[in-house]
TrEMBL record:
Record-linked Pfam families: NMT1 (PF09084)
Protein name: ABC transporter substrate-binding protein
PANTHER family per the UniProt record, alphabetical: ABC TRANSPORTER SUBSTRATE-BINDING PROTEIN, ALIPHATIC SULFONATES-BINDING PROTEIN-RELATED
Organism placement in taxonomy: Bacteria, Bacillati, Actinomycetota, Actinomycetes, Pseudonocardiales
Solute-binding protein family 3/N-terminal domain ranges (all copies): 39-257
The UniProt record lists the keyword Lipid biosynthesis: no
């Protein structure tokens, strides 16, 4: 694999990208973000399973050409956009705000610019973006951050969620990359961190932070997707088509084998598998579907004014930027927002428990989960849906409220407090009995 990758890189350096190739060798350069686990079906998981290379091998039997794939991994979408503008990356995956910036910065190139051709993963309410604070913080709402510093990557969806949710609260936003922001949070240089998947979940799972604000409270969709350089799409349409088919292969694999998929991504990224499974598992925070749904298109349009207001884009015709023709050759798009990776039962209550030494198992409700955990088996991790937003969250780090014989979990203390006396996980376990 290393020799193959090196050969691909050298070929790209010598020949440029697909449309600039000559003879029977066609290089294809893919830009992705391995740790942005909402893009794994167009990045980490896709690369590991080799679906794209397999499909290109079959395509080569028909065309007589050899396709060489080079994968380039980045921490954020910005460098992918820069490389696409320079004509050095053919296909890239990134979040909604970076996608819009990508489209805006290439729109002046006309047909030489970029197009969004598919979605990787999304959350219809916006739960992929969250705000966390140190475990010992006294803050219970965003209003408690008034006058303090908050770390965010300016221009990212996490930053957008923060700005929209603050209302009249005034904070100083420190423009930092996620890893820098984590260090600032831990050192006390900032009071909170506003970031995108999977940073909030990772920090909370490691008990290095607690959730202050769940982006789902905004009820505004957030998504990640796939973009292509239009010249490449026009000159190598069959390659783009096979990429989207391979992305669909990876999506089906994730739906059919969610735990194995999470283990693959965890190994490649260094993220705890429990965190990856929170987002990418059944009923996960992320829903994986390539469809360019109207609700997601509209969400992108609603994001444009914010990006203009902070000077990150000039203008963008979202309808022109989105090109659904390549995807229509691969699958029939759907407007259905149901997560194909389902635990079964009622999605409003369906939970999941993972005991040491066994596989995760579905449980009908959070209350049933508490009783099961009280059975004495050693708990590895458990997941429950927020009683209002449906956001899947760690049971141990949820805030619980008793309602008669039932126990309701919430992602934030503020949300739980509106429903009654707030219980910790241990208190809920104690009251639930067996």
């Amino acid at each position: 694999m290393k020799r193959f990758a090196l050969a691909a890189v050298l070929l790209v350096a010598a020949c440029g990208t697909g449309e600039a190739s000559s003879g029977d060798e066609v290089p294809v350069v893919i830009g992705y973000q391995s740790k942005t686990i909402n893009t794994v079906t167009a990045g980490t998981l896709l690369r590991d399973r080799g679906f794209f290379e397999q499909r290109l091998t079959e395509l080569g039997k028909k065309t007589g050409k050899t396709y060489q794939v080079a994968w380039q991994d980045y921490d954020t979408g910005a460098p992918i956009t820069a490389q696409m503008i320079a004509g050095k990356i053919d296909i890239g995956s990134m979040g909604d705000y970076p996608l819009l910036i990508n489209g805006s910065r290439t729109q002046k190139q006309g047909d030489q610019g970029t197009r969004m051709v598919a979605v990787t993963g999304y959350n219809a309410r916006g739960a992929l973006n969250m705000v966390v604070v140190p475990p010992g913080s006294s803050a219970k709402t965003l209003a408690d951050l008034n006058g303090q510093k908050v770390s965010a990557s300016v221009g990212s969806a996490g930053h957008g969620t923060l700005v929209r949710a603050l209302g009249g609260t005034k904070v100083t936003v420190e423009n930092q990359q996620p890893s820098v922001g984590v260090s600032a949070l831990q050192s006390g240089n900032v009071a909170a961190l506003a970031q995108f998947v999977a940073w909030p979940g990772q920090l909370v799972f490691a008990k290095q932070a607690k959730l202050l604000y769940d982006g789902a409270a905004l009820n505004l969709p957030t998504l990640h997707g796939t973009a292509v350089r239009n010249p490449f799409a026009q000159q190598q349409p069959e390659v783009l088509r096979e990429f989207l088919r391979a992305q669909l292969d990876a999506t089906k694999f994730l739906h059919e084998k969610p735990l194995e998929a999470a283990e693959i991504v965890a190994k490649a990224t260094g993220l705890p598998v429990e965190v990856v499974y929170l987002y990418n598992g059944p009923n996960g925070i992320a829903t994986f579907d390539l469809s360019l749904k109207s609700v997601l298109r509209n969400a992108l349009k609603e994001d444009v004014p914010f990006l203009k207001s902070i000077g990150n884009i000039d203008e963008l015709d979202v309808d022109k930027f989105i090109d659904d023709k390549p995807l229509s050759d691969v699958q029939q798009s759907t407007e259905d927002l149901t997560n194909p990776a389902s635990l079964g039962g009622d999605p409003k209550t369906a939970s999941e428990v993972w005991f040491e030494g066994s596989a995760p198992e579905p449980v009908a409700s959070p209350t049933a989960l508490l009783k099961l955990v009280n059975g004495g088996k050693k708990l590895r991790v458990a997941y429950v849906p927020d009683a209002e937003t449906g956001t899947r969250w760690f049971a141990e780090h949820a805030y619980w409220v008793r309602s008669g014989a039932e126990f309701l979990p919430f992602t934030t203390e503020a949300a739980a407090a509106k429903r009654g006396a707030v219980l910790t996980f241990q208190q809920a376990l104690s009251q639930a009995g067996r």
